[in-house]
Amino acid sequence: MAQYAYVIVPVAVKGPFTYALDPQGTAVGRGMRVVVPFGTGRKLYTGIVVRTHDQAPGSTRTRKVHSVLDQEAIVPERVIRFWMDMANHYLCSAGEVMLAAMPAQLVLNSSTRICTTASTPTYPAGNAGEAIFLSALEDQGRLSIEQAGELLGVKDPLRKIKDLIEAGAVGLEEHVRDTFRPRTKRMVRLAESARDEASLRTWFDTLEKAPKQLAILMRFIELGRGQRTGEQLINTPHLLKSAGADRSALRTLIAKGLFEEVQVQDGLEPTDPIGPAELPTLSQAQSRALAEVRERFGTHPVVLLQGVTGSGKTELYMHLIQEALDQGGQVLYLLPEIALTKLSVQRLRNRFGEHVHLFHSRLTPHQRAELWSKLASDKGGRAIVLGVRSALLLPFQDLHLIIVDEEHDPSFKQHKPAPRYNARDMAVTMASPDRVRVLLGSATPSLESAFNARTGKYGFVKLTERYGGSTLPEVVTVDLREAQKKKRLKGHFSPQLLQAVDRAVQRREQVILFQNRRGYSPIWQCTSCGHIPGCAHCDVSLTYHKRDHDLRCHYCGCNYEPPTACPECRSGTLRMLGSGTERIEEELTGLLPEVRVARLDQDTARGKHAVEQLMSRFDDGELDVLVGTQMVTKGLDLDRVSLVGIMNADRLWGFPDLRAHERAFQLMAQVAGRSGRRRDPGQVIIQAYDIAHPVLQFVLQHDVDGFTDRELEHRRVLGYPPFSRMVRFTLKHRKEGLVAAAAAHMARELRHHFGDRALGPEVPAVAWVRDQHIRNILVKLRRSDHAREKALLAGVFEHMVRSEEHGRVRIIADVDPM
Ligand SMILES: [Zn+2]
Ligand SMILES: [Zn+2]
Known about the structure:
The chain is an alpha/beta fold. Helix content is 34%, strand content 21%. One zinc ion binds at residues 535, 537-538, 553, 555-556, 558.
């Protein structure tokens, strides 16, 4: 038996680390979990064995593995290699990748908090220690594993707790508080006896003299088109509203035995599958695109599918998924946000039933651990995982296809903590000619993907027709400068936009208003001295939130009481400048009181199922207008939106950021694409001060390729990605002098290797956050010499982190920042 194990420990220190094995102990192998001590205290961690060996390490004292938790590997070899590659690429530790990848329940450490479960009170304690521990846990509700160790009287509590969790005696404390009560909705379906053609025809005759009841039946048939005969389920309020009828008419029909009403639970939880549904029939354009995707996969493991909004990419995906499953493989389907795309989720569920697994931030620790174990042990099992970026880190054993839908979306990139990875880019690294195919889909591809498609690195397929032949919406601009000069603005609404909203709502259609800022007003300013109240810990102005009547810092989350007088000059009144979603919502309610408005932003999306509930109310026609931040651009499937308004486009392209134009174009084109998806072309109204801005012209023309040409040329001239690869270092410290000195030193070192491709140190626009002063340094690496330059860069970074003089300054490396 080997004497040592090389172990990945979930800490931010570069590893892996060597530990000594107990020669009499249980056999240890690659991919198994072991309990190891780390650091100066008595802290214990769950680590993963990379390999075992017999080479004594150089250091004098090698610490011992406390215990072995598994009999067989829980992390496949491919996954361990992937963690190491990812750590290398993103300049972080393999332990940080492990921590991001593995469900907390599988990698307990001393500070993990545990809590009681329903079966804690009745669980038979094995010995006195266990009895003491269980009753203490019941008293206090939660304990750390370190505390549990003391109560149990054992040195290595992780093993014991792992067994107790598996037995269901204790659970892991959840950080997301779940205040969810399932929302049910009323749905109407045909009574059993009325589900065939003949009896329906009789009903039409019977109801001839009751026009209101007949209207309900007719609308029911109309709305149920597309669902299977006899199985149509229609939302009750929606049915009544579109039939112009009231409940009493429906009640009569139920009493007569035509309909029955059922309560259906809402949300993403599984509903009874009505299926398995057929694969969707493809239009000619879709079939052609599908054939092209298949053909490109013959020569390219990665294919970019550029399909206009509403072209039905999902239908195409479903055919590819079916093929992968038929070959006995697994499928990973990555999306920016699951709750917003309920319709797609439901369709996949209807077709693929129990093979579909959802993976998102609202799963419980237990559900995550279950899915992990299933995939890790499941060789050759069919599965589709539909998930957000972290689903990429799941231990698939037999992946055949990865779909990255809305591949341009910034939420595929993790900003903090490390690993600061981009799930799309990592998916691409998993592609291989003989196994894993990767399909990137978007109406507005990222410049990186568009570049790779143009240079032939990726296969490229275009889908230019909207499904069902609907045309792209008409996009018009409104000149805010002129409207303001002529004093025609009502709040932040131009007369054109306001009329269009009113008209759409009159016609019982729905509206999305996009405002790139939450809260009520981002700036308060004293009218006499000009003072603007700012955060005490950050260099930013405070945003007023009217509903809670407080001032909030959007950088650190601090709350402040709104001042009644100017804190500087003690006089004057404070006026509000600028607007956020809350103010737009309020203004619209004031201007058009009958309109039912709701807001979709970070503030209203709090709570486990808030987004799903809001979206389902919008879907059911209980709301007319949705005012939202970029959340409304994330691939919402909505049927009845005929108008999209962008409140202030200038705010989108005005950032001093190399991706500002790309992001602005994508946001506007995506939100515009939410208009008129099924029936009419729909309309988009963009309000802007600079209506001649070049980005806006491309949006008006729906000219994705034109925009890409222009922006790529711009990036080429400046040597920015995709023509180089960037790494950004962010340095932070409470003392400005220290951070400035460290940044100057690091920039000098980098310039030594990279010359003028090392930019900075730069003082960012917001240079002080959470009491920390910030400096940035950017390095552009050559694509052609990437590996060598990356190694040089890693050397400088390591050197800084270990430096005696600058080691106290925190340095964050962000590879391929967004
Ligand atoms: Zn003042
Ligand atoms: Zn702050």
